[in-house]
Amino acid sequence: AAFDNLYLPRLHRVGFVGPDVGSQRNQESSPGGYVMDSRPGFYDNVLVLDFKSLYPSIIQTFLIDPAGLADPGDNPVPGFLNATFSRDQHILPKIIKSLWDERDMAKIAKNAPLSQAIKIIMNSFYGVLGSSGCRFYDPRLASSITRRGHEIIQRSKDWIEKAGYEVIYGDTDSVFVLVGSGTDEAGCEEIGRQLASGLNQWWTEYLRERYALPCHLEIEFETHYLRFLMPTIRGSETG
Predict the structure, then answer these.
(1) 7: which DSSP letter?
(2) 0.85 exceeded by pTM
């Protein structure tokens, strides 16, 4: 209901009528968040780099949108499951931008409940679009979000490892980077900031060159664990 309230009036203004609930017959499935195989062990100095609101930022960056999927036009942005999205006619990315700006204002005003409410609404958009109870349900929409998330985490892992560090785990929107012994706390935090800055720059350049798109992805250095335990599954060698 909250999604319909935000989306339908804007859809009507551009001359479209929303589909009925249950009218989508495409039964293909979309995967959930990416979970990397972990490396079990007991580690010194593990950094966590986390993408800020990954799914909303994917929607905004790759212009994922029901109206844009229905009428992709010329030179569309590629998605997954043969989806393509209009570069010019899109609604959902603009809603994300508006909500993001409102959340920033709520943070400045130190209005934590409002900030959290807006965050929950933004993060719910992927789940709504992947639910058969939504009138805009289409596996191509949900897959273009989650599969893009898989690609982003995998490419980020590759970039970090080329920079000389090991990635021991990743989960949906985060990567866990091993620095190892021999580096003090200040040094580890500086490495975390440098990796986040370098990765953000790389994604900006890659998306401009590959898709001619501005980048709304942002990875942050979130946590430094002095000691980190990645256990095995009981009775298995798997992390």
Answers:
(1) H
(2) yes
